[in-house]
Amino acid sequence: MTPRPQRQMVLTMFMVGFGFHNDAWRRPGSRAEEIGELSLIRDMAQAAEAARLDAVFFADSYGANGLRDGGYRGTSVYEPIAVMGVLSGHTDKIGMIGTQSTSWNEPYTTARQFASLDALTGGRIGWNIVTSTRGNENVGREEMPLPELRYRRAAEFVDVVQKLWDSWDHDAVIADRATGRWVDVDRIRDLDHRGEFFGVKGPSTIRRSPQEWPVLVQAGQSADGIELGSTYADIIYAVQPERAGAIDFYSMYKDKVRGKGRDPERVKILPGIMPIVGRTQNEAEELAQALADCIVESSGRATVNRMLDFNVDDIELSEKIPQERFVDGPHHVKRWYLFRELAKEMTLRELIVHTSRTLGHQFIVGTPERVADSMIDWFDARACDGFNFNPASIPEGMQNMFELLIPELQERGYFRQEYVGDTFRERSGLTLSEDDILRVRRRYA
């Protein structure tokens, strides 16, 4: 008998109603007419919960350019705070991760929003921390701040939010009818924070979370992003398409976390993956080709333009992009450099198909057994602690993942059969230690 694995995967899903594959919404049977409405996102969340996923993830954007150039999967048609609030009434166990920018918001507001959702859901909320790479034109800024400044602001922002979440003790609510005291004010702390970017007295008005505070998620792979994530985050979303690179990244990141005095086993690294699953290899390959056939050339070119930050409209599909067009800049993220390398080998047509599928993430086509083999190989090799699913199409690609792939992982013992634990943190192995809580408390002025 094959021994059962000691670890199990953490699995989340990107909630993109268009499908993660560019133009997948053009497939017959898609629910494109419902995108932006409750019915679709409700059914997606309930399907993910039925599959026992750890969490669903809502990205966010501060611009509508994708609606104009066909980059629909990168356009946020659901505002994360609102949609998590609504879905809390349609789900019971699954975690919900919402994106909120530290560049365009204030820590006191963000702390209250996420803490309130967390209290109302019994501890099922996570915050995906982003510094934003665009959107300045919609918040009254002439230009984007440089990355170094954005990340400095982000570190202080998250620090303040954590202290606000910690400003109430678990036993602060006493509901003493005899004395007329609902809360013991001695168990609520001011912050008196005065920093480079923020002045926040505190405390929060929201009682403490049943999971201490919401789960923190981060995805930056620059030096500044890694510093932020290794200091604060419980889950790291990663762009790692190759196994060897993923192993190196995993080892480096866990060392960073350990160096901060944190337990690396309680920080989960989840690279993105788009599995196109079929009952047979031929069925999976036919679906992959059908999705490739859906790509609209103009939107494919627009995706490449956006990813590379320059225009390729004058280049023929059969040609390669001249390397001299790739000019280093301080605003380029690691993914830009990955695409520069790919452009050395691929024609523009091949690059369009590639970017339409992956945006730098792992892409695999195959049977449930083949896809599970690859995922387990990465997991056992310590290239990851699980994955963030990018469903190729909705509902077809998502249903294939849940109905074919998840049972295969469950059968092999690499994924749960049922939820265990009362909160997102408990179910996903992200519980905080006393040292974690004390580390935040020592930051008080």
Written account of the structure:
The protein has helices at residues 38-50, 65-69, 80-87, 107-120, 147-165, 223-232, 243-259, 281-293, 297-308, 334-343, 348-357, 368-380, 396-411, 424-428, 434-441, and strands at 10-14, 55-58, 95-101, 125-130, 173-176, 181-183, 193-194, 199-200, 215-218, 235-238, 268-277, 362-366, 386-389. The chain is an alpha/beta fold and 445 residues long. The chain has one domain (10-441): TIM Barrel. Strands 1-2-3-4-9-10-11-13 form an 8-stranded parallel beta barrel, surrounded by 7 helices. It has a two-stranded antiparallel ribbon with strand order 5-6. Strand 1, helix 1 and strand 2 form a beta-alpha-beta unit. Helix 6 packs across helix 7 (243-259) and helix 9 packs across helix 11. The termini are far apart. The model has no long low-confidence stretch (mean pLDDT 92).
How far apart are the first and last residues' alpha carbons, in Å? 57 Å
* Strand order across the largest sheet: 1-2-3-4-9-10-11-13
**Largest sheet: number of strands, sense, barrel closure:** 8 strands, parallel, barrel
- SS-based class: alpha/beta
The amount of helix comes to 25-40%
Q: What do we call the CATH topology?
A: TIM Barrel
In total, how many domains does the architecture comprise? 1
Based on CA atoms alone, the radius of gyration comes out at 22 Å
Name the CATH class.
Answer: Alpha Beta
The arrangement of helices and strands along the chain is EHEHHEHEHEEEEEHEHEHHHHEHEHHH
Percentage of residues in DSSP E strands = 5-15%
Roughly what is the average pLDDT, rounded to an integer?
92
Number of strands: 13
